[in-house]
């Protein structure tokens, strides 16, 4: 049985293992540890008492940035990323967020397709933003505007 709940500094080692398993240029442990506080949303998904994935979002006023989302390779393609995004939008609705932003590697087509499915649109590109094996690759900047109706229902 899976559940989504906040993760804390006590969970950081398991969360960091997911981060390093998923990303060619993972965040440092110190960066992850710095993502706790009133403007951050730090939530993860557990299956049978194991952390399988997580997200970190930063919000100011009515704008949210999805800074990181990751599902351990063993748990990918089981709907966990979609469950995490659904939870993110629930959290955004509770905070009356009107716009969500994210950046994704140009080469990460699977993530881009998932984000498009969730209503994100490309709004810009950062050239050479992410380090990769042969130099740097672009970041695709995406935005989703949350409908006023969804905000009114929460």
From TrEMBL:
<keyword id="KW-0012">Acyltransferase</keyword>
<dbReference type="GO" id="GO:0005737">
    <property type="term" value="C:cytoplasm"/>
</dbReference>
<dbReference type="InterPro" id="IPR050680">
    <property type="entry name" value="YpeA/RimI_acetyltransf"/>
</dbReference>
<protein>
    <recommendedName>
        <fullName>[Ribosomal protein bS18]-alanine N-acetyltransferase</fullName>
        <ecNumber>2.3.1.266</ecNumber>
    </recommendedName>
</protein>
<comment type="similarity">
    <text>Belongs to the acetyltransferase family. RimI subfamily.</text>
</comment>
<dbReference type="GO" id="GO:0008999">
    <property type="term" value="F:protein-N-terminal-alanine acetyltransferase activity"/>
</dbReference>
<dbReference type="Pfam" id="PF00583">
    <property type="entry name" value="Acetyltransf_1"/>
</dbReference>
<dbReference type="InterPro" id="IPR043690">
    <property type="entry name" value="RimI"/>
</dbReference>
<keyword id="KW-0963">Cytoplasm</keyword>
<keyword id="KW-0808">Transferase</keyword>
<comment type="function">
    <text>Acetylates the N-terminal alanine of ribosomal protein bS18.</text>
</comment>
<feature type="domain" description="N-acetyltransferase">
    <location>
        <begin position="2"/>
        <end position="147"/>
    </location>
</feature>
<feature type="active site" description="Proton acceptor">
    <location>
        <position position="103"/>
    </location>
</feature>
<dbReference type="InterPro" id="IPR006464">
    <property type="entry name" value="AcTrfase_RimI/Ard1"/>
</dbReference>
<dbReference type="InterPro" id="IPR016181">
    <property type="entry name" value="Acyl_CoA_acyltransferase"/>
</dbReference>
<feature type="active site" description="Proton donor">
    <location>
        <position position="115"/>
    </location>
</feature>
<feature type="binding site">
    <location>
        <begin position="69"/>
        <end position="71"/>
    </location>
    <ligand>
        <name>acetyl-CoA</name>
    </ligand>
</feature>
<feature type="binding site">
    <location>
        <position position="108"/>
    </location>
    <ligand>
        <name>acetyl-CoA</name>
    </ligand>
</feature>
<dbReference type="InterPro" id="IPR000182">
    <property type="entry name" value="GNAT_dom"/>
</dbReference>
């Amino acid at each position: 049985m899976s559940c989504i709940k906040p993760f804390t500094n006590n969970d950081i080692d398991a969360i960091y293992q997911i981060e390093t398993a998923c990303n060619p240029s993972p965040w440092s442990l110190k960066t992850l540890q710095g993502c706790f506080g009133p403007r951050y949303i730090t939530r993860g998904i557990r299956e049978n008492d194991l952390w399988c994935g997580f997200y970190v979002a930063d919000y100011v006023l009515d704008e949210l940035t999805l800074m990181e989302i990751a599902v351990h390779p063993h748990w990918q393609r089981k709907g966990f990323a979609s469950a995490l995004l659904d939870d993110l939008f629930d959290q955004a609705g509770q905070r009356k967020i009107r716009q969500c932003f994210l950046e994704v590697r140009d080469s990460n087509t699977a993530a881009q397709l998932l984000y498009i499915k969730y209503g994100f649109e490309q709004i810009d590109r950062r050239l050479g933003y992410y380090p990769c094996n042969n130099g740097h690759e672009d970041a695709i900047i995406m935005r989703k505007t949350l409908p006023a109706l969804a905000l009114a229902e929460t």
